Amino acid sequence: MSKCTFNKVEIRGIVTCIPTIEKCIDDEVDLFGGNYKQIARLKRTIGLNKRRVVDSQTTAADLCYYAAEHLLKRLEVDFAAVDSLVFVTQNADYPQPCNAAVIHGRLGLSTDCSAFDINLGCSGYVYGLWLAHMMVATGGSKNVLLLAGDTISRIVHPRDRSLAPLFGDGGSATLISSSTAAIASWFCLNTDGKGYKNLIVPAGGFRQPSTTHSKVETSDVDGNIRSLENLFMDGAEIFNFTIKVVPQAIRELIVYAKLDLGALDYFVLHQANRYIISNIAKRLNIDLSKVPMRTVEQYGNQSSASIPCAICGELSEALASDNSPQILLSGFGVGLSWASAIIGTSAINVCEIIEYPSSE
């Protein structure tokens, strides 16, 4: 496990941008063959309910650009003061150039500002925070604009009942800056690439280019329809992986930071689904009142944007106070990868969810 500590680095603000289009599992009874009981069971056990999805013209870059512009203006930060832009996504606008370069231009940032992408999903926000903290702590940057967002709904087949009701879309912007305050943060990062096939879009890249064959739709034994160019997830394997590695990683990080689990104020886990979140919390004996989990029921699993969305949607008032709560973040998923962090906070006065106007 890769662990590290940073000091005098702060998160100044977070904005999450969600699409306006809302879908509800109650309206998708045809997807489940008219089985209302199955829908009720999924809502009760998994926490599936509503989700926000983009229209056909909107990308993760659009959502993150809208969030970034709002964040910088609300913080009254000179755009020229941003000296690094890091974009975490698996749904880039183009094979090349990277999203970060495109958004750099749209924001009109300085040519002295570095800009690059990170190809990660559900663990990506914590990985991005780790990198941003490192860039600031080493003196290479003073203000890092971290963008994290995905539009997974656009790569899930609409008749894949195992995934379509789960994934929503979102984009986020976080500003990480140097600080004179004694703020400490701790990180640990992990990867197990042997499990990469358990969460994958098999075709469409250079390993298996898009062809007529890769677009053919097939049905599996459970009636889920998808092509090789749609997202595939082995749900059982992902659940087992998560329950095995995440609680242990969180325990080891708390020991590394020389903190007591009970002293932490909030535990913001990737909003995969309510069942996974509650199982991790129970294995750690965490008070569920400290664990946000309404976000996935309102907006769906937003991949790299799920943690910032949970922070903005459920902890904004707490983070705006003068109490400086300590929060533990943990993301896990595609790779397979997982990452956790304990973040020290000062008052974060900009912590909001905004809507992106639909273009259809």
Overview of this structure, please?
The protein has helices at residues 36-45, 60-74, 99-107, 124-137, 235-256, 274-283, 295-299, 306-314, 316-320, and strands at residues 2-7, 9-19, 21-24, 50-53, 84-88, 114-118, 143-151, 169-178, 184-191, 199-200, 218-219, 225-226, 232-233, 266-269, 326-333, 337-344, 350-356. The protein has one domain: 3-Layer(aba) Sandwich (Peroxisomal Thiolase, Chain A, domain 1). The longest helix has 22 residues, at 235-256. The chain starts with a strand and ends with a strand. The mean pLDDT is 93. With 360 residues, it is of the alpha/beta class. The strands form five sheets. A six-stranded mixed sheet has the order 6-5-7-8-2-17, sandwiched between helices. Helices cover 28% and strands 27% of the residues. The chain contains nine helices and 17 strands.
In terms of DSSP E residues, the strand content is: 25-35%
* Sequence of secondary-structure elements: EEEHEHEHEHEEEEEEEHEHHHHEEE
Average pLDDT reading: 93
Q: Please give the radius of gyration in angstroms.
A: 19 Å
Q: How many individual β-strands?
A: 17
Report the major sheet.
6 strands, mixed
Shape: globular
CATH architecture descriptor name: 3-Layer(aba) Sandwich
Question: What is the CATH first-level class name?
Answer: Alpha Beta
Unreliable runs, pLDDT <50, ≥5 residues? none
Q: What is the name of the CATH superfamily?
A: Thiolase/Chalcone synthase
First-residue to last-residue Cα separation = 46 Å
Helix content: 25-40%
Spatial arrangement of strands, main beta sheet: 6-5-7-8-2-17
CATH topology: Peroxisomal Thiolase, Chain A, domain 1
